[in-house]
Amino acid sequence: MRPRQTGITAISFLALAVILALLGFAALKLMPIYLEHMKVVSVLKDIKTEFDHQNPSIRLVRSAIGKRLSIEMVTVLKPQDFKIRKTENGLEVRAQYENRTPYLGNLYFLAIFNEAVVIER
Protein backbone atom coordinates (compact mmCIF):
# COMPACT_ATOMS: atom_id res chain seq x y z
CA MET A 1 0.00 0.00 0.00
CA ARG A 2 1.28 3.46 -0.91
CA PRO A 3 1.88 5.89 1.94
CA ARG A 4 -0.56 8.81 1.93
CA GLN A 5 0.99 12.22 1.61
CA THR A 6 -0.29 14.93 3.90
CA GLY A 7 0.25 18.64 3.78
CA ILE A 8 -1.01 21.79 2.19
CA THR A 9 -1.39 22.20 -1.55
CA ALA A 10 0.06 25.14 -3.44
CA ILE A 11 -3.36 26.69 -4.01
CA SER A 12 -4.28 26.32 -0.32
CA PHE A 13 -0.95 27.84 0.65
CA LEU A 14 -1.55 30.78 -1.71
CA ALA A 15 -5.07 31.33 -0.35
CA LEU A 16 -3.77 31.26 3.22
CA ALA A 17 -0.97 33.69 2.32
CA VAL A 18 -3.46 36.12 0.74
CA ILE A 19 -5.73 36.01 3.79
CA LEU A 20 -2.81 36.58 6.16
CA ALA A 21 -1.51 39.42 3.98
CA LEU A 22 -4.92 41.14 4.01
CA LEU A 23 -5.17 40.79 7.79
CA GLY A 24 -1.63 42.12 8.23
CA PHE A 25 -2.36 45.06 5.95
CA ALA A 26 -5.54 45.80 7.92
CA ALA A 27 -3.55 45.78 11.16
CA LEU A 28 -1.01 48.19 9.65
CA LYS A 29 -3.82 50.56 8.62
CA LEU A 30 -5.67 50.40 11.96
CA MET A 31 -2.68 50.62 14.30
CA PRO A 32 -2.04 54.38 13.85
CA ILE A 33 -5.73 55.14 14.47
CA TYR A 34 -5.73 53.32 17.80
CA LEU A 35 -2.34 54.69 18.84
CA GLU A 36 -3.63 58.21 18.26
CA HIS A 37 -6.80 57.39 20.19
CA MET A 38 -4.66 56.26 23.11
CA LYS A 39 -2.96 59.67 23.01
CA VAL A 40 -6.36 61.41 23.11
CA VAL A 41 -7.37 59.30 26.13
CA SER A 42 -4.05 60.22 27.76
CA VAL A 43 -4.74 63.93 27.17
CA LEU A 44 -8.17 63.59 28.80
CA LYS A 45 -6.74 61.77 31.82
CA ASP A 46 -3.98 64.37 32.20
CA ILE A 47 -6.53 67.20 32.05
CA LYS A 48 -8.63 65.51 34.73
CA THR A 49 -5.58 64.94 36.94
CA GLU A 50 -4.38 68.53 36.56
CA PHE A 51 -7.67 70.34 37.10
CA ASP A 52 -9.63 68.06 39.45
CA HIS A 53 -11.00 70.00 42.47
CA GLN A 54 -9.65 73.35 41.16
CA ASN A 55 -12.82 74.75 39.52
CA PRO A 56 -11.09 75.82 36.27
CA SER A 57 -12.67 77.91 33.53
CA ILE A 58 -13.61 76.42 30.17
CA ARG A 59 -11.05 78.64 28.46
CA LEU A 60 -8.25 77.41 30.75
CA VAL A 61 -9.16 73.76 30.14
CA ARG A 62 -9.34 74.27 26.36
CA SER A 63 -5.93 75.98 26.40
CA ALA A 64 -4.41 73.09 28.37
CA ILE A 65 -5.96 70.61 25.93
CA GLY A 66 -4.36 72.48 23.02
CA LYS A 67 -0.93 72.36 24.64
CA ARG A 68 -1.21 68.65 25.38
CA LEU A 69 -2.44 67.84 21.87
CA SER A 70 0.58 69.67 20.51
CA ILE A 71 2.98 67.84 22.83
CA GLU A 72 1.44 64.45 21.99
CA MET A 73 1.38 65.36 18.25
CA VAL A 74 -2.30 64.47 17.87
CA THR A 75 -3.45 65.53 14.40
CA VAL A 76 -6.98 64.15 14.27
CA LEU A 77 -8.42 66.66 16.79
CA LYS A 78 -8.09 70.35 17.57
CA PRO A 79 -8.90 71.91 20.95
CA GLN A 80 -12.16 73.25 19.48
CA ASP A 81 -13.28 69.68 18.72
CA PHE A 82 -13.53 68.86 22.43
CA LYS A 83 -16.98 69.48 23.88
CA ILE A 84 -16.72 71.12 27.29
CA ARG A 85 -19.90 71.70 29.25
CA LYS A 86 -20.73 72.59 32.80
CA THR A 87 -22.46 69.96 34.91
CA GLU A 88 -23.58 69.93 38.51
CA ASN A 89 -20.33 68.16 39.47
CA GLY A 90 -17.96 70.37 37.48
CA LEU A 91 -16.93 70.26 33.83
CA GLU A 92 -17.47 67.39 31.42
CA VAL A 93 -14.81 67.21 28.71
CA ARG A 94 -15.79 64.96 25.79
CA ALA A 95 -13.85 63.88 22.72
CA GLN A 96 -16.27 62.40 20.20
CA TYR A 97 -14.85 61.83 16.74
CA GLU A 98 -14.57 59.52 13.76
CA ASN A 99 -11.39 58.50 12.02
CA ARG A 100 -11.51 57.03 8.50
CA THR A 101 -8.60 55.42 6.71
CA PRO A 102 -8.51 53.86 3.24
CA TYR A 103 -7.98 50.11 3.01
CA LEU A 104 -8.18 48.79 -0.55
CA GLY A 105 -9.65 50.66 -3.49
CA ASN A 106 -12.91 52.17 -2.32
CA LEU A 107 -12.99 50.24 0.97
CA TYR A 108 -12.38 52.21 4.16
CA PHE A 109 -12.06 51.49 7.85
CA LEU A 110 -14.17 53.77 10.05
CA ALA A 111 -13.41 53.98 13.76
CA ILE A 112 -15.82 55.91 15.99
CA PHE A 113 -14.56 57.07 19.39
CA ASN A 114 -16.40 58.68 22.30
CA GLU A 115 -14.39 59.41 25.45
CA ALA A 116 -15.25 61.72 28.34
CA VAL A 117 -13.97 62.77 31.74
CA VAL A 118 -15.58 64.88 34.45
CA ILE A 119 -13.41 67.46 36.16
CA GLU A 120 -14.76 67.73 39.71
CA ARG A 121 -15.22 71.13 41.31
List the helices and strands and how they pair.
Blueprint lengths: L9 H42 L6 H15 L10 E4 L3 E13 L5 E13 L1
Antiparallel strand pairs: 1-2, 2-3
Cα-to-Cα separation, first versus last residue: 84 Å
Mean pLDDT: 95
Q: Give the strand tally.
A: 3
Task: Report strand %.
Answer: 15-25%
Describe this structure in words.
The protein is built from two helices and three strands. The radius of gyration is 23 Å and the shape is elongated. It has one domain (32-120). The mean pLDDT is 95. It has helices spanning 10-51, 58-72; strands spanning 83-86, 90-102, 108-120. With 121 residues, it is α+β, with helices and mostly antiparallel strands. It has a three-stranded antiparallel β-sheet with strand order 1-2-3, with helices on one face. Helix 1 runs antiparallel to helix 2 (58-72).
Compact summary:
The chain is 47% helix and 25% strand. With 121 residues, it is α+β, with helices and mostly antiparallel strands. It has one domain (32-120).
Relevant terms:
alpha+beta; 3 strands; three-stranded antiparallel β-sheet; elongated; 121 residues
